[in-house]
Design a protein that fits this description.
The protein has a 4-stranded mixed beta sheet, covered by helices on one side. It is α+β, with helices and mostly antiparallel strands. It has 2 domains: 80 residues, 3-Layer(aba) Sandwich (Glutaredoxin), CATH 3.40.30.10; 127 residues, Glutathione S-transferase Yfyf (Class Pi), Chain A, domain 2 (Up-down Bundle). The longest helix has 26 residues. 50% of the residues lie in helices and 6% in strands. The chain has 9 helices and 4 strands. It comes from Achromobacter insolitus.
Amino acid sequence: MTYDLWYWDGIPGRGEFVRLALEAGGIPYRECARQPGADEGALVADLSSARKHPPFAPPYLVAGKMTLAQTANILLFLGEKHGLAPDSLEGRLWVNQLQLTIADVVAEAHDTHHPISASEYYEDQKVEAARRARCFREERMPKFLGYFERVLEGPQAWLAGGKRWTYVDLSLFHLVDGLLYAFPKRMATLAVHYPKVMALHARVAALAELQPYFESGRRLPFGEGIFRQYRELDAA
């Protein structure tokens, strides 16, 4: 089966967590909003189309007659269906728990530049953003990174503790990549305190399964979306 992945074109965003799993797993898919002739209107039209279980927002995955939305939910499905998660129910729920924790960080990272409203410009909420970003840098980033560092305690190379990566390792890689882009000064200070997290980031970056994707030019650069670089929001 070839899946249809719907997400806004031009930004990696939450869709990138799903893309990484599809690419690393060698799973056929179409990036529908990036097909020739498609535009933002095509996504809006599809999102509004009648479905038994309609998604609230992208990303969503069309798998035959099923439509699956919410990043963690999509990855839970792909993990079990394509061997990107542990075999046991306990293991699958564990990586889903980790993925939901990553979703929490993603939401907080987004709110550093849009703390009041996602529909208003950053320039209209800069004072509030500066305060929110300071809290995120000083309190929340160490707390979240410290949690994943503890999960990686011991000889294990991957978050689920097995001999092979799971989708949540790919997601942590993308999260760290986003934080390195949005908060380079802060991450330069924090990285030395979380060597296992940074080692996992490097390990995923070197995965043979992902090199064709990384080298293809299809991986979208950071800029707009969740992880944005505003120098006034970053500090060591």
